Amino acid sequence: MEETYKDRTSLMKGAKDIAKEVKRQAVKKVNKAVDKAQDGYTQRSYNRFQDEEDDDDYYVQGGNYSVEANDDEGSSEATEGHDEDDEIYEGEYQGIPSMGQGKDGMVALGQPIRDEYKDRHELETERKADEEELAQQYELIIQECGHGRFQWALFFVLGMALMADGVEVFVVGFVLPSAETDMCIPNSGSGWLGSIVYLGMMVGAFFWGGLADKVGRRQSLLICMSVNGFFAFLSSFVQGYGFFLFCRLFSGFGIGGAVPTVFSYFSEVLAREKRGEHLSWLCMFWMIGGIYASAMAWAIIPHYGWSFSMGSAYQFHSWRVFVIVCALPCVSSVVALTFMPESPRFLLEVGKHDEAWMILKQIHDTNMRARGQPEKVFTVNRIKTPKQIDELIEIESDTGTWYRRCIVRIRTELYGIWLTFMRCFNYPVKDNTIKLTAVWFTLSFGYYGLSVWFPDVIKHLQSDEYASQVKHFRNEEVSHFVFNFTLENQIHSSGEYINDRFIMMKFKSVTFEDSLFKNCVFEDITSLNTYFRNCTFVNTTFYNTDLEQYKFVDSELINCTFFHIRTGCQISFDDDYSAYWIYFVNFLGTLAVLPGNIVSALLMDRIGRLTMLGGSMVLSGISCFFLWFGTSESMMIGMLCLYNGLTISAWNSLDVITVELYPTDRRATGFGFLNALCKAAAVLGNLIFGSLVGITKAIPILLASTVLVCGGLVGLRLPDTRTQVLM
C-alpha cells in the first residue's frame, strides 16, 4: 500500500510539472511578442541616429541579431536568462522526480515545503499547533455569540435523547416480570433480558461515539436514536422470546450512543463559564427519564385489562403498551434533531470552515434577536482550521462489486474508529484516560451493583413476609361443594375432594399436596404459581383452564378429560397490587436524585469538578455502612434514596470532566469507550451483588464502600478543567 501511495504521489508531481512546463511555454510566447515589439522600437531609434553615431552599424547589427534570435529561438537574451532562472526555480519537467529530491530542492532554495513532501509527524505537529490556536479563538467566538435561545433549544432537544437513555435502563426492569409470565420464560433464561440490553448499550456506546468523531455529532445521534426507536417499537409486537431479545439488543445498541454524543455535542456550543452548570442541568433529563418510566409503568402495566388477543397465537398485554409509550421520547428527539445544525466545532476540526461559520453566525443572530439586539453584527470573518491530514483509501471502484465496496468502506470506517480510540492512549491524554477508566469502572460497579441489590433485598423481605403469612390446611374432606372464590397463599395437604366444582376461580400461590380429587369439575380457572404435587385425579373434567401438564407434579390422572385448555402463560390478576409497590419504590429512588442534581448544577463551577467528584464518591461509600441497619422495607427504601442522592453529583461531575479532558477529534470516542466500560461494570456488578441477596449483607456493603472510596481518591488526581478552554 505504501509503495502504491508513493507511485501515485510521484505521478501527481509529474503531472503538476507538466502543467508548469506548459504554463512556462505560454509565458515564453508572450515574452516573444513583447521582445519583438521592443526590438522593433529599438531598431527605429537606432536608425534615427544613424548619421550622428559612428558605430550605428554595430548597434543595428546587434538589433538585427536580436530580432533573428527572437524568430529562431522565441526569446531575447533577457528572456533567455529569465527562462534559465525559471528552470532552476520552478523545476522543468525532466521525468518523474523523487520525493526526496523535491523536498531537498525546496529547502535549498529557501521555499516553504509543500504538504506532500512532509512526513506524518511534521503534519501532526502543525495540526496540533493549529488546534491550540483554534481552541482559544473558538472560545472567544462562542462568547461573542452569547448564551441564549439557540443553546436552550438545543438543550431540550438533546435532553429528550438523554431522557430516552434513562427510560431504556428502567424499561427492562419494569417489563421483565410481566414479559417472563407472558412469554413463559423459564428462570434459567430470564436473566438474559437484563444482560442483553446492557450488552447492546456497551457495544453501541463505543461504536456511535467513534462514529460521532468521524461523521459528526448530529448525524451520528440521528442514526443511533432512529435505530433505538425502531427496534423498541418493534419489540412491543413480537411474540417469541428469542425475537424479543433480538429487538431489545438492537434497541440497546442504538441508545448506547446517546450519552457520549449528547454531551460532546452540547459542550461544543457552550462558553467556558457556562459549561459546567448547563451540562449538569442537562443530566437532569436522565433522571426525568427514570421518573417517566416509573410513572408509566405504575399507570399502565398493572392494568391487565388493557390487552387484546387475536386467537391464541397473538397476545397484546398492557406491558407492551408500556413499551410503546416509553419509545415516545426517542421519537420526539429524532424529529427535533432534524431542525438542529451540526456542531460548528466539529466542522472546523474537519476543515469545513464555511459551514461552521454559517452555523456560528446562525447561533449569534438567533441569540441576538432573542435579546432584542437584531442589529448586532457577527464580527468574525475568518476562523482558524487545523491542517487536514488526508488518508489514502483503496476501494476497487472499477473491478469490485457493490457489496465488496460496501464491505471495504465499512471495514475502513471501523478501522478509523479503532485508530481514533488508540489515540486516546497517546500523550498527552494517556494518563487522563487511565484515571478516568478507574473512576468510571468503580462508580458504575458500585452504583449499579447496589441499585440492583436494593430492590432484590426489598423483594426478599417481601417474600419472607409473604411466606410467613401462608395458611396451611391439612386433612380436609370436602364433598358436593362449589368453590367460586379466590384462593391465595395457601397450602392444602392430604385432602379429599369428592364431587366438588371449582368454577370461575383464581388460584394464586396455592399448592395442593398428597390430595385426592374424585368426580370433580374445574371450569374457568386462572392460576399463578399454583401446583398439584403428588395428587390423584379420578374422573375429573377440566374446561377452559390454564392448568397445563407442568402444574401437575408427580400426580396421577385417571380417566380425566381436558377441554379448551389455555396454553401459554397468563397475566390475569386485576388485584395484583405488588407491582404498584415495586414501581413506587423505583419512582422514589429516582426522584431522590433531584436535590443532588440541583446542588451539583449550582456548585459545579464554584467548588470545582474534582471536589464534587471525589467528595460525592467518598460520601456515597460511607453511606453504604448505614445498610447494616436496614431491617425493614421502609428503612431500605430510605437508604436507597440517600444513596442515589449522593451518587448523582459524582455522575454529573464525571460527565463534565470527561468531556473537557478530551480534544475535539477524540471527545466522543473517549466518552463512548468509558460509557461502554460503565455498562460492562454494571453487568459485573449485577451478577456479583445479585448472587449475594439473602445470603449476607457484609460483602455487598464492604465491596461497594471500598470501590467507591478508591474511585473517589483516584478522581481527585485528575487535572482541574474548570478554567481551561475546550481543547
Automatic annotation (TrEMBL):
GO BP terms: chemical synaptic transmission; neurotransmitter transport
Entry keyword Coiled coil: yes
Ranges where the record places region Disordered: 37-85
Gene Ontology terms for molecular function: transmembrane transporter activity
Subcellular location: Cytoplasmic vesicle, Secretory vesicle, Synaptic vesicle membrane
UniProt-listed Gene3D superfamilies: E3 ubiquitin-protein ligase SopA, MFS general substrate transporter like domains
UniProt cross-references to InterPro entries, sorted A to Z: LD_SV2, MFS, MFS_dom, MFS_sugar_transport-like, MFS_trans_sf, Sugar_transporter_CS, SV2
Keyword presence, Transmembrane: yes
Topology of the protein relative to the lipid bilayer: Multi-pass membrane protein
Listed transmembrane segments: 152-177, 189-208, 220-237, 243-267, 279-301, 321-340, 436-454, 580-603, 610-629, 635-659, 671-692, 698-718
Signal peptide positions (record): none
PROSITE patterns associated with the record: MFS, SUGAR_TRANSPORT_2
Residue ranges constituting the Major facilitator superfamily (MFS) profile domain according to the UniProt record: 154-722
GO cellular component terms listed in the entry, alphabetical order: synaptic vesicle membrane
Chief location category: membrane
Family: Belongs to the major facilitator superfamily.
PANTHER family: SYNAPTIC VESICLE GLYCOPROTEIN 2, SYNAPTIC VESICLE GLYCOPROTEIN 2C
Protein's UniProt name: Synaptic vesicle glycoprotein 2C
Protein's gene: SV2C
